[in-house]
Amino acid sequence: MKIYDTPGFPNPARIRIVLAEKGLDAQVQFVKVDLVGAEHKQAAFLAKNPTGVVPVLELDDGTLITESVAISAYLDNLDGQPTLTGTTPREKALIAMMQKRADDQLIDAIGSYFHFGTVGLGDQLQAHKSPEWAGRTEWAGRERDKYVQGLKDFNEVLKTRPYLAGEQFSVADITAFAAMLHAVYAGVAIPVDCEALLAWQARVAARPSVQNRSGQAIDAEDLRRLGL
Ligand SMILES: N[C@@H](CCC(=O)N[C@@H](CS)C(=O)NCC(=O)O)C(=O)O
């Protein structure tokens, strides 16, 4: 199978952590998409994912799977022994609930702020973003505030259990962790009084799958083009 993504970016990181958790790296061929150069907004990539974002999973039979939540579920269930998406109806429901919250309140919110409230990925890509939205700094600020409120809500959850959906590490934790990776580039810090969240972040960061995942860093050339 092939994964079209960009090393070091947050949604790709979700999949790379899942691959490391499941020991599947060797079965995947990574194909780099040039996000900074807006390759994902060109016809060839849009034919694979009309929403124009990475990651995309392409199976050997040509099936295309987009959306990190769907790709993660596919990879987790491939060996018939899911470890990240739950097994019992209760586990599956709690993980799906926290996963949806992590998408809405954290990774999508900080992504919107990054693209519309900061310089984002630079001029070449911003030219593909709707100009009327690019001016919506007030809206982008609300997305940043939504993210920070999400962090506070998750901090409350983590006062009661070690991982977002209970006793077990799950895809919800991976999504929330990736959102915080993204927030670094958006210049938004975790509030210092979110102690349970900070302790959880350190626990997740220490996992072998997170430490040893492939493609952790943004490519040097991309960093240069982004002025970082
Ligand atoms: N809902 C998608 C979001 C994917 C996403 O936003 N990916 C980012 C990279 S982290 C992207 O491709 N951004 C490019 C853009 O917004 O133009 C998912 O879960 O996979």
Q: Which CATH architecture of the largest domain?
A: Up-down Bundle
Number of strands: 4
Strand fraction equals 5-15%
Largest sheet: 4 strands, mixed
Mean pLDDT: 94
Q: Say what the CATH topology of the largest domain is.
A: Glutathione S-transferase Yfyf (Class Pi), Chain A, domain 2
Bound molecules: glutathione
* Helix and strand pattern: EHEHEEHHHHHHHHH
Separation, N- and C-terminal Cα atoms: 32 Å
What does this protein look like?
The chain contains eleven helices and four strands, in the order E-H-E-H-E-E-H-H-H-H-H-H-H-H-H. The protein starts with a strand and ends with a helix. It is 54% helix and 6% strand. It is globular. The protein is an alpha+beta fold and 228 residues long. Helix 1 links the parallel strand 1 and strand 2. A four-stranded mixed β-sheet has the order 2-1-3-4, covered by helices on one side. The mean pLDDT is 94. Helix 7 crosses helix 9. The protein has two domains: 95 residues, Glutaredoxin; 119 residues, Up-down Bundle (Glutathione S-transferase Yfyf (Class Pi), Chain A, domain 2). It binds glutathione. The site of glutathione (GSH) has 13 residues, from helix 1 and helix 4. Glutathione (GSH) binds next to helix 1 and helix 4.
Q: What features would you highlight for this structure?
A:
228 residues, alpha+beta, Glutaredoxin, 2 domains, four-stranded mixed sheet, 6% strand, binds glutathione
